[in-house]
Amino acid sequence: MPDGGKADLSSAAQIIADKIDREGPIPLGDYMAIANHHYYASKDPLGEAGDFITAPEISQMFGEIVGIWLADLWLRKGSPDHCHYVELGPGRGTLARDALRSMRKFGCIPKVHFVENSPILRGRQKQLHPDATWHQDIAELPQDGPLLIVANEFFDALPIEQFVATSGGWRQQMVVRDRSTFAPVPSAHRAADQISGSASGFPDGTILERSPVSVEWAGNLANRLAKQGGTLLIIDYGYTRPGTGSTLQAVKNHVPVSPFDSPGTSDLTAHVDFHTLANIARTRMLNVNGPVGQGQWLKALGIDQRATALTRASSEQAEMIQAAHHRLTHPDEMGSLFQVMATTAIDWPEPEGFSDKEE
Ligand code: SAH
């Protein structure tokens, strides 16, 4: 919505309401897709003044370490030409700025590609990366060289579907109108062809989540890596074993709110299913490393030393640097909740940071 951040707050709600009036209850994934499309198109949600803060916005150390990790892989692969840095949902472009600065120090100067559909965030990214190329989806990415792909807090924003166990089998979670807001309601019909296995053995009301959109993105990315070489680094919150329960959540002004009130005005996310994403990569013969906790990964790659060096260079910032280090790595903060997973082309070196020894 090219209106400079003032997109009317009710537009997503109105579009969803009209769709439900026209079609009847809509799948949860459709609700989430419309809500998030409007949300990201209407504002820059990042930072203390926004709705949520991400690791690259906390400290330059995060992007620098991602850059060192990529440069190390690239060097050990023999410094291939025509390399592309690809970021999915790059937010303000901060991670790319810090990562590319680190990579340059090792002689790694890839072309820069952003997959981003928010016009407002594309504008922010252009300020830091005037020479980048923007894409609407993966099909548009270049075909001519290895891809160094980074996705920080991207997959959690992709729509999910839910399935609810009932005595009549699995039912897809739909969304209906509830006066001026919305509500989830299991479909009246069995979800026979969408979910394999029986619902018996699961207590009534058990929820299974699936993200067909994430599966499609991960499959397309894995096909590219298998063909062109390179790596995909995913950093996000999520689960590493199949489980049950709803992980759908909404955040506004750093506070949890109901996902079904005012869609399009809060950040709607779900936990990332690392187990499924890893399996997709394996079926394309990619190597999978992790997931491991973000804290463990950052420490294995030298965040402690980087914090010490930064503190030495500007001692008046010591407290801030220490606080950022704590927030990024401590298990009570982002250290364990966030997971890091890398999928890498089979003829690429083994990436650093995933060995158990380092915890
Ligand atoms: N990676 C950034 C921003 C995370 S917020 C950071 O760590 O700070 C999620 C990002 O994904 C935003 O840039 C949002 O506009 C983008 N995004 C969400 N859904 C998308 C989609 N379907 N296609 C392209 N970009 C999307």
Characterization of this structure:
- With 359 residues, this protein is α/β, with parallel strands linked by helices.
- The protein has eleven helices and 16 strands.
- It has helices spanning 11-23, 28-42, 55-58, 60-76, 94-105, 119-128, 212-228, 274-283, 294-300, 303-313, 318-329, and strands at 26-27, 84-88, 111-115, 133-135, 147-152, 161-166, 169-178, 181-190, 207-210, 230-239, 249-252, 255-257, 267-269, 272-273, 287-293, 338-344.
- Helix 4 packs across helix 5 (94-105).
- It starts with 10 loop residues before the first helix and ends in a 15-residue tail after the last strand.
- The longest helix has 17 residues, at 60-76.
- Strands 2, 3, 4, 5, 10, 14, 15 and 16 form an eight-stranded mixed sheet that branches.
- It binds S-adenosyl-L-homocysteine (SAH).
- Residues 36, 40, 46, 54, 56-57, 89-91, 95, 115-118, 121, 152-154, 157 line the site of S-adenosyl-L-homocysteine.
Topology as H/E string?
HEHHHEHEHEEEEEEHEEEEEHEHHHE
Uncertain spans, ≥5 residues at pLDDT below 50? Answer: 1-9
Through-space gap between termini: 45 Å
> So how many helices?
11
Kindly estimate the percentage of residues that lie in beta strands according to DSSP: 15-25%
Strand segment count: 16
User: Structural class, please?
Assistant: alpha/beta
Profile the largest sheet.
8 strands, mixed
Instruction: List ligands, each type once.
Output: S-adenosyl-L-homocysteine
- Helical proportion, percent range: 25-40%
Average pLDDT figure = 94
Q: State the shape.
A: globular
